[in-house]
Amino acid sequence: MVDRVDKQTRHRIMRANRGKNTGPEVSVRKAFYSKGFRYRLHDRNLPGRPDMVFKPQKAVVFVHGCFWHGHSCRRKPHAKSNCSYWQQKIEANKRRDLETRNELLQKNWRILVIWECAVRRRKPPFAESADIELAVSWLLGSGRLAILSEKGFDECL
Fold this sequence. Notes:
alpha/beta; Endonuclease, Chain A; 5-stranded mixed sheet; 5 strands; globular
């Protein structure tokens, strides 16, 4: 498929995609803050620089973009140009995510992955949903790994 914008415009658009402080990440942070939790952001001392670090609970939260981290949800957009590049890039991201997850688990950190599809375009908003209550329960509990997506909450370990 032919790209609808020139190469320079596409480059500028792609550079504007941020790795930190994305809309879904800010929504999740506000939701936890409204529940009384305080956290550190993007701790460089931890593998993968988690989006949120809850030291008292020894837990981290990653807010993953569905496109960038290769989620298989119905909302994930597909690359329309340079498909092989994006497929390789996303596969590399998925491998890195798995390595990061394993490193954190070995260091006895608890991990909550919240997918963009669980946060974006929803009613009620994430901060008012049952999902934030599930995330808070998990944070106060002892589960090692949990994933929250548009399909719901899943405790893996």
